[in-house]
Specification:
The chain is of the alpha+beta class. It is 51% helix and 21% strand. The protein contains seven helices and five strands, in the order αααββααβαββα. It has a five-stranded antiparallel β-sheet, sandwiched between helices. Strand 1 and strand 2 form a beta hairpin. Helix 2 runs antiparallel to helix 3, helix 3 packs antiparallel against helix 7 and helix 4 runs antiparallel to helix 6. The longest helix is centred in the C-terminal third of the chain and has 22 residues.
Amino acid sequence: QQRRSRQLAERHRSRPPALRPSGAKPAENGSMLTASFASLAQELITVSALSPALRRLLTLAVGAVDACDCASISLVVSTEAGPNVATDESAAALDAIQFREREGPTVEALRTRPPVYVADLSRQSSGLLAAAADAATVTSALCLGLWIKLSGEWHSLGVMSLYAPDLDAFSEADREIVGIFAAFAAAMIGLAHT
């Protein structure tokens, strides 16, 4: 029994800290995210209801990540970027510039499964993207491809982009939380289209 008690205590000490917005109590954050995801999951997601559901998911993501000011999801139609859902015009405009110029973290996230994080958009090679980010008072970008596995192969459905005004704004914990939102968004899009 003493050995088992020591093992349980050791496991408890080695667990990573719970992810939660600063100032929130663990139960509040867990309850908020659980209630939010449960509410979205209970809706019958159809293609016609997809945009409002994704907009709600983006609003939840912006609320859960302190550093984030705005976010967007661009869906892929064949090889081009398709419909865009965003929390505001700044995020939509930044995505549109990247797809038009065919460069930037949003475009890169469509091609790769790991998240693409840019701590300072002013250092991007495209002068248009740097200028648009400056005009929108956006400095950091975190972009995640939305992937689902069909018949044993991964397929890109689009990309989820989060933008923040501060330099190097997204912490490792923020990236983990956003990964959960992105996985949920990919599942919603996949269900809507099937």
